[in-house]
Amino acid sequence: MHVGLAAVFQNPGKARTDLEVYQNELRLVSQAEGLGFDSIWGVEHHFTDYTMCPDVLQYLTYFAGKTEKVNLGSMVVVLPWHDPIRVVEQISMLDNMSGGRMILGLGRGLGRIEFGGFRIPMEESRGRFIESAKMILEGLETGYCEFDGEYIKQPRREIRPRPSKSFKGRTYAAAVSPESARIMAELGVGILIIPQKPWDMVAAELEEYATIFREVNGEEPPKPWASGWVFCDEDEDRAREMARRYIGGYWNTVIDHYEFKSDHFKKIKGYESYSVMQERVSEEGGAEKMVEFFLNLQVWGTPDQCTAKIVDICDRIGSDSFNGVFSYAGMPWDEAERNMSLFASDVLPRLQALPASGERLRVAASA
């Protein structure tokens, strides 16, 4: 199994200086290669203390120069907020600089405050994402970009430095709505899963995605990539307590950043499916129930329990890849480092030694 480490640069309530957050998060991520992780990841967000990484490709470029072997993953670059020809140039440049170590993750965005800051109507996000993704993916394969769409009007231009190798099989998109899964299948990219719904529901949507992918592309889709928030501790009771405090605390930042206590999603074309979550949060006791729901999707417990939970997640969705987030929601730095280090010493080697998901399931079935 491939196991990555992701940083989210949270500063809830501005309890620290942003400089302190950056210095310590970078310090933690700098240990990833030495600890044995297979990849380093970051995610793009803007304007709030929810996730303070406005340029995930710049962040990955920093680690391209500090590492030698780990892959470098974007989880995600939000395409509607960018000029796509600049994105394809940055991707190609980073991949050349790192010797082809990039894993490309794309998304269309969900935060109203972010769309407003970039002066992009949220109603346009799906169309902008599709057009940008088509142009970027084609440009990475051919070495030039051109497009004549509703939103993207791009005259033909060469991409320099030229892409050095194909991005097929190493491009993923975050998809949490049924409509998005269909779009990703038609684009020919894999699915990056950031857990927000029951795993059996995710598995059903992935099966639909895989069916469409085979019909459109005439081949099997890439295996999905799972992600999760992790708290690992030798003591089960302490792990539960700390997970409730910090993973639950992280979920509260999700509610705030995406304004899930509002009702705006049902009014925005392309985001109607998110209104269900808004309704659940708004119910009496709904916010607390959603914290518990989210907590139960994540990975926490003793090393044995964390290992079992990750294997269960990956077997449910047919994945051989997992990204863990170890520092979040204002967790003390020494606690985050302890969490990450224990996982690296007691969980990571066991996961990396596992056979592929299909073989794991065959062995389990015959046991």
Describe this structure in words.
The protein is an alpha/beta fold and 367 residues long. It has one domain: TIM Barrel (Alpha-Beta Barrel). The protein has helices at residues 18-29, 32-35, 56-66, 84-97, 112-117, 125-142, 178-187, 199-217, 236-257, 275-282, 286-297, 303-317, 333-346, 348-352, 357-366, and strands at residues 2-7, 39-42, 71-74, 77-78, 102-107, 144-148, 153-158, 171-174, 190-193, 225-232, 299-301, 321-325. It has an eight-stranded parallel β-barrel, surrounded by seven helices. A two-stranded antiparallel ribbon has the order 6-7. The relative contact order is 0.13.
Enter the CATH topology name: TIM Barrel
- CATH evolutionary superfamily: Luciferase-like domain
Helix percent band? 40-55%
Radius of gyration: 20 Å
Report low-confidence residues grouped into runs of 5 or more.
Answer: none
Number of spatially distinct domains: 1
What would CATH call the class? Alpha Beta
What does the oligomeric state look like here? single chain
Number of helices: 15
The helix/strand class is: alpha/beta
Distance between the termini: 21 Å
Per CATH, which architecture? Alpha-Beta Barrel
Largest sheet: 8 strands, parallel, barrel
Explain the layout of strands and helices.
Layout: E1 2-7, H1 18-29, H2 32-35, E2 39-42, H3 56-66, E3 71-74, E4 77-78, H4 84-97, E5 102-107, H5 112-117, H6 125-142, E6 144-148, E7 153-158, E8 171-174, H7 178-187, E9 190-193, H8 199-217, E10 225-232, H9 236-257, H10 275-282, H11 286-297, E11 299-301, H12 303-317, E12 321-325, H13 333-346, H14 348-352, H15 357-366
Helix pairs in contact: 3-4, 4-6, 7-8, 9-11, 10-11
